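Take a look at this chain, tokens included, and explain the fold to me:
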Amino acid sequence: MAWRVRRHPASRSVVRDSFSRSEAVAALAWLAGFAAVAAVIEAFYLSASVRIMGADIALPWPLVAAPWFNAVLVKTAKLWSQRTVVALVPIVVWAAALGVAWQPAAALLTTWWPLAVLAALGVLGGLRPLVRGR
């Protein structure tokens, strides 16, 4: 006996595309703000470590979080505008904020290359939704 799940018609996803220009600008401003805050947090937490049995083990979680979060920001920006240049606004703001936070964050690290890897992974993660076309 096979069970069938019945779905209510109202449970289907609906894409809303009738919004004003000011709503789109406000949404992109919020996304840009989130991108700037994320870049600063990721830059300063790049030197995070965990103490296990008396040994400090590096835990650079921003190297995983940055590409994923930037991809989410760009996908969301694509929902608000069909133009690729507009969808890139969160990545441009993220890169600019990372540039501002670079020097203070570099003072916490012993070398510069983790920040360079973070910058590369963050930008590539943000470009991925545009390349994939979804």
